[in-house]
Amino acid sequence: MKLMNVFPFCLSLLITTALFVNELFGPALLAVALAVMAVLVAANPRIMFVTAVNSGVIQWLILLLLGLSTLWSGDPAITFRAAVQVGLTILLAICLCSYARPIHLVQSINIVCGVIVIASLISGRRGLDGMTGMSNLVGITNNKNTLSSYAGLLVLSSITILATPRTSWAWKSVALLAAPIGFLTTFASYSVAVIFITIVATTILVAINLAQLLPKQKRRDYIEQMISVGFIVIPVGGIFFSFFWDDALRLVGKEPTLTGRTVLWFYADRFSRDHYLIGVGFADFWVQGKATAEFLWRMLHIDSRSGFHFHNIYYQFSIELGVLGVILLVFYQIFILRDMAKSVLDQPNAISAFQAAFVIFLTIEEFQGVALFQTFSPLFFTCVACVTFARMARHREIAGVEGDPRAVSRPLRSPRCEGGETQSP
């Protein structure tokens, strides 16, 4: 019995660590995680299939489009390989959701991001930003954006652990120390966007958790009012913040072009018009030897000529997958936000709050980042896991309360599907 309790947490920690450190230390641990997943699939393919069905259809349609773009890609081998890797990223999240519990994901993220952030602060390594010529804290990561994103996740996971009932004092003590360290690191990284979205996501996380202080019959009304207020406050707050955007950028040594991003977006808009409907093919733009990519690398002083993107998921999709890809992406984001809203309405607890806060965190981040449907992206993996866990919990709730036959998650053991699972491994 003890082994059965430890295994889900160890599996979660293995998969989460493998994806979060893949970019930092190479794919060795990722290969181990994929091998373990292959064994689990061979041992019980049905549980993976049921979880995959629960995860939602749109992500599979986008994955299909990524694969089909091999047919018109200028470099089919690169496109096919990238599409397969995105598929494996999704399957790793599906595997975790099939065997682990939502709290295991939160704890794993807290451990991995905590180690990376603390090691980065100890190392104090600074990296030169080729687009700005500035030196920023990067620690053991490859760039300040990665470090700040991990620090933001450390904040969200720490607050979630603190808000989860019946969590051991050991976990809560660590989380109590980790939360301020994460916040300080986001500021130390000088990433204005991540500082902003971390504050927004933390506010949402805390606001949802406050519902636990109310009587059960009043929680749904509170969440509905909070969502209504959010639809007003977030856009208005964004407009208000935009008036001080230049001042905020100057505080961290940046200028109104967002360190060259607006220039990048200008050319992305022009290039996307050449392949308007279906794009050039997934992962087939930033390739050495391609004239357009080489032009942008030279203009933006990217000497490495690799590991680069358009710093905006919509421009990235418009060039690689055309307007068809952008439409599917927008539908995907709308549906996962809808799933998060339903999840917190049905079960306003620490886990559903984390899932909603993270999805909102990532949705805002994608206006200056590229994580969704990227190869072995830890942020995309976390998004798929959060959405799948939320959908599984909702399907189980439907099956338990209404007897709805659509609730295909019914065969799964119930503790894995409960957003409120709180026990430590």
Task: Walk me through what this model shows.
The protein is built from 18 helices and 2 strands. It has 425 residues and is mostly helical. A two-stranded antiparallel ribbon has the order 1-2. It is globular.
Which short descriptors sum up this protein?
425 residues, mainly alpha, two-stranded antiparallel sheet, 70% helix, globular, disordered C terminus
Task: Briefly summarize what is shown.
The protein is an all-alpha fold.
Strand content: under 5%
Which strands sit side by side, in order, in the main sheet?
Answer: 1-2
Instruction: Kindly state the number of beta strands.
Output: 2
**Separation, N- and C-terminal Cα atoms:** 12 Å
Helix content: 55-70%
Main sheet summary: 2 strands, antiparallel
Large-scale geometry: globular
Low-confidence runs? 401-425
Mean pLDDT across residues: 82
- Roughly how many Å is the radius of gyration? 21 Å
Number of helices: 18
Structural class: mainly alpha
Taken in chain order, the helices and strands follow as HHHHHHEEHHHHHHHHHHHH
Itemize the secondary structure elements and their pairings.
Blueprint: H1 2-25, H2 28-43, H3 45-54, H4 58-68, H5 76-99, H6 102-123, E1 126-128, E2 135-137, H7 144-163, H8 169-188, H9 192-209, H10 216-242, H11 245-251, H12 261-272, H13 291-299, H14 313-320, H15 322-346, H16 350-365, H17 378-401, H18 414-417
Antiparallel strand pairs: 1-2
